[in-house]
Design goal:
- The termini are far apart.
- Helix 9 packs parallel to helix 10.
- The protein contains 15 helices and 21 strands.
- Strands 5, 6, 7, 8, 9, 10, 11, 12 and 13 form a nine-stranded mixed sheet that branches.
- The chain is an alpha/beta fold.
- The chain folds into three domains: 118 residues, Ubiquitin Conjugating Enzyme, CATH 3.10.110; 133 residues, 3-Layer(aba) Sandwich (Cytidine Deaminase, domain 2); 243 residues, NAD(P)-binding Rossmann-like Domain (Rossmann fold).
- Helices cover 29% and strands 22% of the residues.
Length: 565
């Protein structure tokens, strides 16, 4: 139902309000029209303002009165004011950022009259009066109509300033988007005086596509290069000539630095201003994530859950990863994996590596392409297991019984915390769990406790074809049915638990070490997000283990030869 049908009294109120302005004399004509297909009402209004007869159209949008009225010249392309959007719409005192349903079309018209009347006045020096702006325009709004953009880091600017001197060759990478082309400054070309320099803050994938058709220089105010970048009338080859002795080839970018400002032009058939994209460096991650510095995390399984957890941990501040997976990214994986078409055909380890380094270029990634429990030489497998043992945390997401078992044994033998998660077949829920040395039983025992809890004979039978613990079953099962939202919820819980497991035990937010989470009304869940914490038994006492250690202490000296002094 259109707004004027839903609120007929409001339409009458609008008509009366403009009618009152007609009686005042400065509004000369009002003609109403309704567009039922668009759900809008419009009024053609002729009124006097600034010594002229103005012909405007007021458009009451389909969501009126919860959205401002448009006031714009009826003649297309007419520019009346400095307070006018590119579409021609006047920017008035009542607008999107302060609109209230008490405002009406008469208020908008009065505001337009005041604006145009003030701007028609002149001061004692004969200068036209200006109406000061009262609203804030964001940097993003300023870029809205800038199709050519430049991303240049503070580190790059500092290196150009350090080099000083004349013009320097610059490597640029251009990325095309629907409404703009973004140019990334990724490096500086080497010369007789300076080595080549690479901005390591830019992902390597962007750096690999760079060209060397840009020039950058420090400017002096009013010098030839400065004036060339300011002049709107110079041809591309005239601008280029100020930055290079090489003949203009039909394409280039010229950049100048002056007192903290970046001036740039993209040169093609014409010279276009290249807008620097402003960056902000506000702290967005919580301070507790500082504890992630220096931690190495293993992701065992780079499928739908593992890929999401890895990306989340990278954003949280983890900068050292060891990835384990033997699968190749396929088109069908796109429905749930954090990777996309650009990774199809690559091993998931390689795809996730690129994904992590696109999030943070300083991330270090090592990987093993293989499935724990697959057919590999012992030497190859041991290489992987030894690197797992060097990690501060193991995150297991394979849904593989064999893979889980090997990862769990490494965690137990080398006292490494381990977290894991599963989505139930059908996507109606899942669980997350952890095993920390000395705080919970080892991972295999914890998993057995969880499975025992979930198979309680007093619980309803799970849905058909739904494995409540995908990893307990033999490997090579059919693909689990669940959508991306299902996996994303459980993956987010697992990522949160993984971050928590990297903190000291006394700082943990989790009173329990296993949680079963519902995503819809099914099985034991009465509603979405119903959660069941599972109380686990404490780890076994060290008595038996201590006895074995005593035996080892007696036997080992006889087996291990003494070190040479």
């Amino acid at each position: 139902m259109n707004w004027f049908q839903r609120f007929p009294a409001r339409l009458l109120h609008e008509q009366e309000a403009l009618g009152n302005l007609l009686s005042q004399g400065w509004v000369k004509r009002v003609v109403w029209a309704v567009d039922e297909s668009a759900g809008t009402v419009s009024a053609e209004v002729d009124f006097e303002a600034g010594g002229k007869l103005r012909e405007v159209r007021l458009v009451y949008p389909f969501v009126y009165p919860f959205c401002p009225i448009q006031v714009l010249p009826r003649a297309e392309g007419e520019r009346w004011s400095n307070h006018q959007w590119p579409s021609g719409e006047l920017c008035l005192e009542m607008r999107a950022d302060n609109w209230h349903t008490d405002f009406n079309g008469a208020d908008m018209l009065i505001s337009a009259r005041n604006l145009l009347g003030t701007e028609a006045l002149v001061d004692d020096a004969g200068n036209a009066m200006r109406v000061p702006t009262t609203h804030h325009v964001t940097p993003a709004q300023l870029l809205h109509f800038k199709a050519a953009r430049l991303v240049i880091s503070d580190a790059m600017i500092a290196e150009v300033i350090r080099r000083g001197g004349d013009v320097h060759g610059m490597d640029l990478t251009a990325v095309d988007h629907e409404n703009c082309v973004v140019h990334f400054a990724v490096g500086l070309v080497g010369s007789a005086e300076h080595d080549a320099w690479v901005d390591v803050g830019i992902p390597s994938r962007l750096r690999a596509k760079a060209n060397r058709l840009a020039r950058v220089a420090l400017l002096q105010k009013g010098d030839a290069r400065h004036l060339a970048l300011l002049d709107k009338n110079l041809s591309p080859d005239e601008v280029w000539a100020q930055f290079s002795s090489i003949a203009y080839s039909g394409y280039g970018v010229a950049i100048g630095l002056l007192d903290g400002q970046v001036l740039a032009k993209w040169l093609g058939e014409k010279a276009y201003d290249l807008a620097k994209v402003p960056m902000d460096y506000q702290q967005r991650a919580p301070a507790r994530n500082n504890a992630m510095a220096g931690k190495r995390v293993a992701i065992v399984g780079c499928g739908s859950m593992g890929s999401k957890v890895a990306a989340s941990l990278a954003r949280a501040g983890v900068t050292d990863f060891y990835l384990v997976d033997g699968d190749v990214m396929k088109i069908a994986n796109i429905v749930r994996n954090d990777l996309d078409w650009t990774a199809v055909g690559a091993h998931k380890v390689d795809g996730v590596t690129e994904r992590l380094q696109a999030i943070n270029p300083e991330i270090k990634v090592d990987g093993w392409i293989g499935d724990l429990g697959g057919q590999f030489s012992t030497a190859n497998l041991v290489t992987c297991l030894r690197k797992l043992a060097e990690c501060d945390l193991i995150v297991e997401t394979t849904a593989s019984g064999q893979g889980f078992g090997m990862a769990a044994q490494v965690a137990t033998m080398d006292d490494i915390p381990m977290v894991w998660g599963r989505v139930f077949g059908g996507g109606y829920g899942g669980y997350v769990a952890r095993s920390r040395p000395g705080l919970e039983a080892d991972a295999l025992d914890v998993r057995h406790e969880i499975y025992t809890w979930m198979t309680n004979p007093e619980f309803p039978k799970p849905p058909k074809d739904s494995d409540i613990d995908y990893g307990v079953e033999p490997d090579h099962q059919p693909s689990m049915i669940a959508d991306d939202a299902d996996v994303s919820v459980i993956a987010a819980h697992l990522a949160r638990m993984a971050l928590d497991a990297l903190l000291p035990a006394n700082e943990s937010d989790y009173p329990f070490s296993a949680y079963v989470i519902g995503l819809r009304r099914e099985w034991i869940f009465a509603e979405p997000f119903q959660t069941f914490p599972i109380k686990l038994r404490p780890p076994p006492p060290l008595g038996g283990i201590g006895a074995n250690l005593s035996t080892a202490a007696t036997v080992l000296p006889d087996l291990v030869p003494p070190r040479e002094q």
